[in-house]
Amino acid sequence: MNLKTLAASSVLTAMLAFGMPAFAQIQPSSQTTDFVRNASLGNMLEIESSKIAIKKTSAKDVKDFAQMIITDHTQIGDQFRKALASSNTGLSATEKLEGDPKDMLDELNAAPAATFDNLYVQAQSKAHDEAVTIFADYAENGDNASLKKFASDTLPTLKKHQELVHTLTQSFMSTRQ
Fold first, then answer.
1. Where are the beta strands (DSSP E) in the chain?
2. Would you call 144 helix, strand, or coil by DSSP?
3. How wide is the angle at C-alpha 138 spanned by C-alphas 71 and 122, nearest 5°?
4. Beta strands of 55-105 (E only): which ranges?
5. pTM attached to this predicted model
6. DSSP string spanning 150-175?
7. Which residues, in sequence order, are CB contacts of 15 under 8 Å at separation 6+?
8. What pLDDT was estimated at residue 21?
């Protein structure tokens, strides 16, 4: 047995002898817990509202944007779950919409066709403005390396969506009033 193996074995034996799990999860900070919750809810809202848009809109630009959001945010959700698994926090992505995101989905579902596109574009604009702020803050100040890398890696996509939805909003306001 070499010296490194012996040292590692001794540390592991000591941890187990004193009742410490060898691979303990790190207690997540409130900053990390909030980031996980807000990122989960925002991602679900953007996907679910875009699924509604695909069904309810007849505007090609809105439908194309919604499809892009579904595709990109489904991939972001997969990457998020991988980052969570490697974060060693024991946290998982929120699986159910609640609060304001749920209320927004209910409002979109109930919206008449005449006002749906405007409401959807406004919801996506607000969601992406919030997401960019949340992800930028965690990418810079986060305290979990796996989630911080995820936030940093995801931020360019969110900024692209934010720019596109703001352009769509401007186009929407000038041509559809």
1. none
2. coil
3. 50
4. none
5. 0.82
6. HHHHHHHHHHHHHHHHHHHHHHHHHH
7. 21, 22
8. 45
